[in-house]
Write a structure and sequence with these properties.
About 60% of the residues lie in helices and about 10% in strands. With about 625 residues, it is an alpha/beta fold. The protein has a domain of about 325 residues: ABC transporter transmembrane region fold, CATH 1.20.1560.10. A six-stranded mixed beta sheet has the order 6-7-8-3-9-10, sandwiched between helices. The chain has a four-stranded antiparallel beta sheet with strand order 2-1-4-5, covered by helices on one side. Strand 1 and strand 2 form a beta hairpin.
Length: about 625
């Protein structure tokens, strides 16, 4: 399938369902690569339906000739014809299953892969406004109904139309007058069905939306089961899930009401047409214009004409579900990928790592600025620390450096190149990120380390593990580096997960490194264990650090104090401390007697209490031990 066609066909997002004919270009894009399968399938369908007509057609000769006129020499040919036709019908049905039903499953698999590949290339802003569980439902569930576009639903729908057409031809030849009356009733019923399905399809669309929401919340609840249990919120989560399931149930009940009403109408139609034909047929037989065998044949073929129309109630429900899934899938595929910007034509080679912000503003929502007039430069190999209270804009600034977002105003340059014009693939392969909460996949330690560079050799992976001191715990496990860490690394401690994350970043060998509060959630012992790995990782790279523990950034080349989305102070630790401004306030507050929550590793309460006065009189004295200052290793060679 060509995703571009879906993008081109994408309409502005709305809860209103598109008309079914508006989706025909999208449907054709699904089916076009499989047109050979369709042609063969249609031929088999025609053979199948024609073979199915042999039995009803032979009933006339069986009744009028074999039974009424005792022409027994026709019995064997008629029986053989029925047997052969039945065998052909069975073989063609088997062929249809093998060709179309299996191809429909391949379509689902292919579409899931395409939607997933598209979703992972959407900008971070898309994920900010969509739940993970909802996206999972879109990828896995919404495409499931599409099998009816090529599989069972199509076979029943198109095959039914073929049967109706063949039956109509026979009926007209037998009695044009009776057929005209029956077809008139069917046409009226067909218009009624079309109106009914126009009402039902939005209900299916709403069902998929509700199902995605319920699935999303369930995914979050199970994923955060430790938080749920920690706050004894099992009953609250049960209530939330119950309410979602009830909404889903109400939707299903509305659908059942509509479909059962259509079933009632179709059954009534079938009974009415049958009664009318009995009346007209009896008059024709009594008048001598029709034989009993002809009437029986007419009745059977009328059933073949009416039955597919009645089946459309069930088939139409399947097709409505498929179209609702197609609409939601089209919505996702119409989302603009972050690297689809026509301006991103510049491919970066190996970079030095110079980053420059010039008058950068950014807002998640229009009129609500998060960053205002941010300007600074980070030289290649330098360390820039970002300091400020929660919500000041530090993480947003990091997001801009990672090109997760585009500035509302101003420009970000990397080695002199405008970042909004740079190919994201060429840039992000030279980025490394170590977050406060290390995310690990449910795989082995080796697989998680190699995630940043899958083509790395075994020796390179082990070397990264040794530098980050992953070997200290990995080699103690029974399966060593093949030990499965569990979902989100649940089988490892916080310090162990962080060391794996650092090893992953070391293996990537980035030119620009982001440390987003990489040690603030660890205890002193765990932090001291990973400092060596951090020190190696920082060496020679342009590094941006967000740290709550201000003692760990004393040796940064520049410290940016951010508050209210603006840089209110900048400089080194010594200059900012001497200025006695906001940084001085933050630093002394952390190292004062009234708060010892942010002690550096190995720092006692007494040392913390005297830190402010000592630094004020001897700012040049470095009280940090090598283990608690990751930058000292760099400074001293």
């Amino acid at each position: 399938m060509n995703g571009n066609a879906l993008v081109a066909a994408g309409k502005p997002k709305s809860e209103k369902s598109a008309k079914w004919w508006e989706l025909l270009p999208d449907i054709w894009e699904f089916l076009k690569p499989r047109r050979i399968h369709l042609i063969i399938g249609f031929l088999l369908m025609a053979v199948n339906r024609l073979a199915g007509l042999v039995l009803p057609a032979s009933s006339k000769f069986f009744i009028d000739n074999v039974i009424s006129k005792r022409q027994l020499h026709l019995l064997i040919p008629i029986v053989l014809a029925v047997v052969v036709a039945t065998a052909v019908q069975g073989a063609s049905s088997f062929g249809l299953t093998q060709i179309l039903s299996k191809e429909a499953q391949r379509l689902i698999a292919e579409l899931r892969v395409r939607v997933q590949a598209h979703v992972v290339r959407l900008p971070i802003a898309f994920y900010d406004s969509n739940k993970v569980g909802t996206l999972v439902a879109r990828i896995m569930s919404d495409v499931e109904g599409l099998r009816n576009l090529l599989g069972t639903g199509m076979v029943q729908f198109v095959g039914g139309l073929m049967t109706s057409f063949f039956a109509l031809v026979v009926l007209i030849r037998i009695s044009a007058g009776m057929t005209l009356v029956a077809v008139g009733i069917l046409v009226v019923f067909g218009f009624t069905l079309n109106k009914a399905f126009a009402v039902i399809r939005p209900i299916f669309r709403e069902r998929r939306k509700i199902n995605a929401e319920v699935t999303g919340r369930l995914t979050e609840s199970i994923g955060g089961v430790r938080v749920v249990k920690g706050y004894h919120a099992e009953d609250r989560e049960r209530k939330v899930f119950y309410e979602g399931v009830q909404r889903l149930l109400e939707n299903v009940l509305r659908t059942l009401t509509a479909t059962s009403f259509m079933s009632l109408a179709s059954t009534t139609l079938l009974g009415g047409v049958s009664a009318l034909v009995m009346y007209l047929g009896a008059r024709e037989i009594i008048a001598g214009r029709m034989t009993l065998g002809t009437f029986v044949t007419y009745t059977i073929f009328l059933g073949l004409l009416v039955a597919p129309v009645v089946q459309i109630v069930g088939i139409g429900t399947q097709m409505s579900e498929a179209l609702a899934g197609l609409e939601r899938t089209r919505e996702v595929l119409s989302e603009r990928q972050e690297d689809a910007d026509a301006e991103r034509t510049l491919t970066l080679g190996p970079i030095r790592g110079e980053v420059r912000f010039e008058h950068v503003d950014f807002a998640y929502e229009p009129g609500k600025a998060v960053l205002k007039d941010i300007s600074f430069q980070a030289s290649p190999g330098s360390i820039t620390a970002l300091v400020g209270p929660s919500g000041s804009g530090k993480s947003t600034l990091i997001g801009l450096i990672c090109a997760f977002y585009t500035p509302t105003e101003g420009t970000i340059y990397v080695d002199g190149a405008d970042l909004r014009k740079v190919s994201l693939a060429s840039y992000r392969t030279q980025l490394g990120v170590v977050l406060q909460e290390s995310f690990l996949f449910d795989g082995s330690i080796r697989e998680n380390v190699a995630f940043s560079r899958p083509e790395a050799s075994e020796e390179e992976i082990l070397q990264a593990c040794r530098i980050a001191r992953v070997d200290e715990f990995a080699e103690s496990f029974e399966k060593g580096y093949d030990t499965v860490v569990g979902e989100r690394g649940v089988k490892l401690s916080g310090g162990q997960k962080q060391r794996v994350s650092i090893a992953r970043a070391i293996l990537a060998d980035p030119r620009i490194l982001i440390l987003d509060e990489a040690t603030s959630s660890l205890d002193s012992e765990s932090e001291s264990q990973i400092q060596e790995g951090l020190s190696y990782l920082l060496r020679g790279r342009t590094t941006f650090v967000i740290a709550h523990r201000l003692s760990t950034i004393r040796k940064a080349d520049q410290i940016l104090v951010i508050e209210g989305g603006e840089i209110i102070e900048r400089g080194t630790h010594e200059s900012l401390y001497a200025a006695g401004g906001r940084y001085f306030e933050l630093y002394t507050r952390q190292h004062g007697v009234e708060s010892n929550l942010f002690l550096a590793p190995g720092e006692s309460d007494a040392e913390a209490a005297s830190a402010a006065s000592e630094l004020e009189t001897a700012n040049a004295v470095d009280r940090e031990t090598p283990e608690s200052d990751p930058f000292r290793v760099i400074r001293e060679g």
